Amino acid sequence: MKRADTIPKCKLIILCFLLAISANAQEITRHHVDSLLSQKSIPGSAADRIHVALQLAEFFTHLRHPSTAQLDSASHFINQAEQLNYRSPQAETSFRIALIRSAFYKSKGQSKNGRALLERTIQEIKQAHNWVLLGKAYFELSEYYSQDFLQQSMVSRIDYLNQAIGAFERTNHMVELARCYRLLADLHQMMNDYTLAFAETKKALAYYDQAHYTETQGLYALLGRLYYTQGDYKTAISYELRALKIATTSHADNVRLICQINNNLGYNFVKLGDNQKAINYFSRALEIAKSEKDNATIYLLAGNIVDVYLRMHKPQKAQAFLTQVTRKFIQPSGELYEGGDEVSQTYLKVYLALKQYDTAKLYCDKLIQQTNNPNLNLYARTSYYELIIKFYTATSRFAEALKYLKMNQDLLRKIGNNNDLGTNETLWFGLDTSRRQYQSAIHHLISANTIKDSIFNTTKSKQIEQLQIEYETRQKEAQITLLNQKSKLEQANLQQANLVKNLTIGAIFLLLVIAALLFRQNVHKQKSNEVITSKNVLLEDLLLQKEWLLKEVHHRVKNNLQIVMSILNTQSAYLQNDIALEAIRGSQHRVNAIALLHQKLYSSTTTALVSMPAYIGELIDYLSDSFDTGYRQIKINQVLNPLNLDPALAVPIGLILNEAITNAIKYAFDHKGGEIKVSLSTSDDENAILKVSDSGRGLPPDFDFSEANSLGMEMMKALGKQLKGKFVIENGHGVTLTITFPIEQNREEAFVEKDYL
């Protein structure tokens, strides 16, 4: 069984760290710094010179990887500010100097000294009741945990950020409040608390709006990541594109953020199955990393591109691309906590796909050695274990694979990563199948599906909770709007009454009668509108629930079909009769054709229609892998016009294709191979044409399709009748099977059948 299409948690965490911009807002740009440094002296009063010196010191201190020369510059400006302040001491200036010096110690690797200074300064600031600097001090204290993603470390960082919020809430510093909430949301997203993360992003956005702050690209990029984790990839893409637009038009230094946004977009298009767009966005991010000369990020992004090529079953292209990168850029070295050995991981994936196990062993051994690195992030360690397990299983070293499966299971339970626990169970299923322990294999397969179902249900519950909150918010807004309308109406009546007072008694009486009638009619109309609105909302909610239930049904049907396939696979291991074994395998292919359809239905945004090019493409990929057409030298070409059909039509088409392509692969060619062409087109708005042709040896001269009574032929005849289609088989320079079937008539009958059911 193949692993589900998920991006490991460690990839998201490591990438966010590698591409992170300093959390502290820089009040001075690189251009401004160069301008100030070019001046021999800074004009202005002592207070002005202190302010500029601290700005310069803060700029160099908060660079991501400051050089020795840049740290020396920071130290020079801190000392300069201290000397100027010594002449006329100001408590607030002393506090600012202490905060920047603490950050300087941290950047220099002297975290113990920096933290001790910061904690002393916090106590002094508390006594001075300076809430702005207290908020900044707690914020700076939280940054001491910014390179550590262990659970307790993130909890501590959250605690300090909440204390910073408590201080900033006593001030009018809305931008600082928004920044704190944005980082809180990022941390809760890493801890899988998505409900809290969504609430915190909305608070951050509200504070940015109050401050009229337009540099919101980081927040929208975070919203995109949050919707990505919820599986709402289209919404995620809309937020990422919004962030990209703001970042590219801003005057701020957004180079690294733009790199991160392009990478996030690549992940989303991977999920949507648009591999080419994914490669385009990953490549844009890679070009930025190259311009920044950031080799760690270069290799991480190159790994993403390699992963896409492997998904596209192009291991040779993946190998060539990775070799090109390694020739141009030095591989990152040292025991970086956040990075791990991305190069060895990527090469191991490539050589496993190429089945070059001797070369793959070199990189597997490197990963095994790296697992002993005490600085290695726990999420990165699990990704190492997964690749090591795959290598040992592929090379039949089952004892070693079992050892790392148990180690990975213990580690995943420790960090609470349920998604990868399901993946570990899938790997265990593969190991047990390879060593023919089928009862244990079925147990692990069921465990994997149970975990995946649990994650799916949890995600849907959170989405329902989020929708419920949004629904209640809309209801409250509607009530407020209604009250405002009533208030305006009452004010209008008052103005009208004042005007009526100046008229005669007869006119007053008449106007009062008219006003009363109008008011009654208006109230009646408003009540009618309220009833209609509430019913519309209820109908929308019921429709949404029906859509979820349909997707859940398709999801469970797909899982059950996969279990059926696994049971058939297990049964085949006990069969010695080639005919029975061939029948079991044929049944597996037919079941998979139906399972693919249900997978398409529950993973798509609509359950009404199926995209036939995507469905047929995946079916052909599956058959190519199953029969190893590359080894047989058989090439399958596809010419598929865009066409969306009802599932009732897609199932017989998939089964017909399964039989036709399977027969062509098995019987049409000799050892030299050949070509199979599959095409789907529409002759007009009412009919579609499905054609499967091969360049093989053809059928015997005396073959009669109407008299053929094999299981495959009988199935195709029955399915053709179900489609109300016309079968034509041509025998010359190979076999060409053509079926022409009506679209609209079948659609109408499918709809009638659904309504009846």
Automatic annotation (TrEMBL):
Its EC number is 2.7.13.3. Residues 656-745 form the Histidine kinase domain. Residues 1-25 form the signal peptide. TPR repeats lie at residues 217-250, 259-292. It catalyses: ATP + protein L-histidine = ADP + protein N-phospho-L-histidine. Keywords: ATP-binding, Kinase, Nucleotide-binding, Phosphoprotein, Signal, TPR repeat, Transferase. Pfam families: HATPase_c, HisKA_2, TPR_12, TPR_8. This is histidine kinase. It comes from Mucilaginibacter rubeus.
